[in-house]
Amino acid sequence: MATNRTFTMIKPDAFAEGNSGAILKMIEEAGFKIVAMKATQLTKEIAGKFYEVHSARPFYADLCAYMSSGPIIAAILEKENAVEDFRKLIGATNPADAADGTIRKIFAKSIEANAVHGSDSDENAAIEGAFYFSMTERVG
Ligand code: GDP
Fold it and tell me: InterPro entries in the record, alphabetically (predicted)?
């Protein structure tokens, strides 16, 4: 079933290089409405909880270190068919494989420092949005 919300993070590499504004512009121009947004910095422990599903993967420790290495922007986005359309907008995990014009193709540095996160399912979009934002911090 299509959902109308997804969750994103502008990751430390993109934030540090001052690409947040350009990325948010692409997101809004693609028709996504910002429902909640904040700048924050994760601890290694919180990054570990967010990416717990990857805890058995060899890159897990590196990923937690990277995601806690600097500020990020977390946001909930609204649009029809949000999860699928946002995955298309950001492109493949590895920027080398990402299609031209996608956010990762333009801004990502590597398979790890890949500029943005986008939820991969309706269920995870709801879980991830609730991980960062209470009901009083989002529109609806
Ligand atoms: P996503 O859904 O496209 O973000 O990709 P995954 O859920 O598979 O991986 C989560 C995140 O882990 C990615 O966005 C990357 O930041 C990182 N990652 C994925 N694969 C690798 C890898 O092979 N090596 C490293 N160092 N990081 C990876």
Answer: NDK-like_dom, NDK-like_dom_sf, Nucleoside_diP_kinase
Rg (C-alpha) for the chain, rounded Å, is: 14
The mean pLDDT value for 19-38 works out to 98
Written as six digits, the tokens of 84 are: 């699928």
pLDDT for the residue numbered 2: 59
Q: Summarize pLDDT for 102-135 with one digit per residue, the tens.
A: 999 999 999 999 999 999 999 999 999 999 999 8
Please give the model's pTM, rounded to 2 decimal places: 0.96
**Domains identified in the chain, total number:** 1
Pocket test for ligand 1, best of 64, 93, 110 (most atoms within 8 A of CB): 93
Task: Note if 54 is an active site residue.
Answer: no
For residue 62, how far is its CA from the centre of ligand 1 (angstroms)?
10
Binding residue per annotation — 38? Answer: no
Query: What CATH code is carried by the domain that includes residue 76?
Result: 3.30.70.141
Q: Is 117 in the pocket of ligand 1 (CB under 6 A)?
A: yes
